[in-house]
Design brief:
With 357 residues, the chain is an alpha/beta fold. It folds into 2 domains: 1-149 and 291-357, Isopropylmalate Dehydrogenase; 154-288, Isopropylmalate Dehydrogenase. Helix content is 39%, strand content 16%. It has a 12-stranded mixed sheet with strand order 3-4-2-1-5-12-11-6-7-10-8-9, with helices on both faces. A hairpin with a 5-residue loop joins β11 and β12 (296-299). The two termini are 41 Å apart.
């Protein structure tokens, strides 16, 4: 990995607050000594927003190729047509296509080794959806594009204290129960366990698993997913050596600070995990896609159309996404380094293992 580390940043939906929080996050003294930012987007739109913000200290270098990026400056790779219309707070198909173009170019750069990790600004899921992009969000696209196995790609929201993984992500609530299968729960628990060990440098992480139904289903009275799917999944994970516990009713789990006893939490659906997480993490939350061949983070907020163009957005989550992404990439590099050539098992250890079995 290069020093300073090269951080690719996609501009997301330019009619939202993406460029604003990128500018604010990067417009800090000494920040270019820590990493080399490479933004994938539109220098034209970025310059327009910079002028409207009145940010005199922010400077950037536009370019056509990632290979032209240099350390010590903000690099902007132009992946968009000129003459696009900026309409803050109003989604447009043009902005959606520009968001996809930036994401595709950044993934190409990751695969070519031209950047070391990816940070994505928020997108509008409706304007990006098309025949060429039939995905409901970043996570699903990246799972197909950058994972060895798409089943290993898991959405994790985290800050310094809480790490929440989701069994289902962008799925209508009416479709969630049928998606809560033993295998789906097991995959998420094991993916979170692997991520905590590899990317968060935890030796023996403790993982709490939430129930789907109120009161854990009340022994089947309020639903039987706990009995049929979730408890068997936990039991099998434990048998495989994962420190998994539960299921826990979500309301009491968060309401009594039980979550502080665990290194990771598995929630069954989007709002069950993210509503309490965002209330607790506030502006410090980061979205992370575990299980990819590369590190990808994102701020945990959306496009912010309601404040786009007012230039009052808080850049903390974007800044955290960058810094935490760098930490995760370095943690993974170190983990892979120390596990790449494990010591061979001695004959004595081999005989002991055989006798135990």
């Amino acid at each position: 990995m290069h020093n300073p580390i090269r951080v690719g940043i996609t501009h997301g939906d330019f009619n939202g607050i993406g460029y604003e929080v990128i500018i604010k996050a990067l417009d800090e003294e000494g920040i270019l000594d820590l990493f080399t930012p490479i933004i994938f987007g539109s220098p034209e739109i970025l310059n327009q927003i910079r002028k409207e913000m009145g940010t005199e200290t922010f400077r950037f270098a536009p370019m056509r190729k990632v290979s032209d990026a240099q350390a010590g400056r903000v690099n902007v790779v132009d992946v968009c047509p000129r003459g696009m219309e900026l309409t803050p707070g109003h989604p447009s198909q043009e902005a959606g296509e520009a968001a996809v173009a930036a994401l595709d170019a950044a993934c190409n750069a990751l695969e070519a080794g031209e950047i070391d990790l990816l940070v994505t600004a928020p997108i509008n899921k409706k304007t990006i959806f098309s025949e060429n992009f039939p995905f409901p969000g970043h996570t699903e696209f990246l799972a197909q594009r950058l994972a060895e196995d798409s089943k290993n790609a898991t959405m994790i929201l985290f800050d310094d204290e809480i790490r929440v993984a989701l069994v289902t992500t962008h799925k209508a609530l009416r479709d969630v129960p049928e998606a809560i299968t033993k295998q789906a729960v097991m995959n998420t628990v094991k993916n979170l366990d692997a991520a905590l060990k590899q990317d968060f440098r935890m030796d023996k992480p403790r993982i709490a698993v939430l129930s789907l139904n109120p009161h854990n289903g009340d022994n089947g009275l309020l639903g039987d997913e706990e009995i049929k799917e979730i408890i068997p999944a936990i039991s099998e994970c434990v048998a495989e050596g994962v420190l998994a516990f539960g299921p826990f009713a979500a309301d009491g789990f968060f309401g009594t600070n039980e979550f502080l006893k665990y290194d990771g939490i598995v929630a069954m659906y989007h709002d069950q995990g993210l509503a309490p997480f965002k209330a607790l993490a506030r502006e410090y939350g980061v979205n992370y896609t575990a299980g990819l061949k590369y590190v990808r983070t994102s701020p945990d907020h959306g496009t912010g159309y309601n404040i786009a163009g007012k230039y009052e957005a808080d850049p903390t989550s974007m800044r955290q996404a960058i810094y935490q992404g760098i930490d995760l990439a370095r943690n993974r590099e170190k983990y892979l380094e120390i596990t790449s050539n494990p010591l061979p098992i001695s004959k004595q250890d081999s005989r002991r293992k055989s006798s135990e079995e």
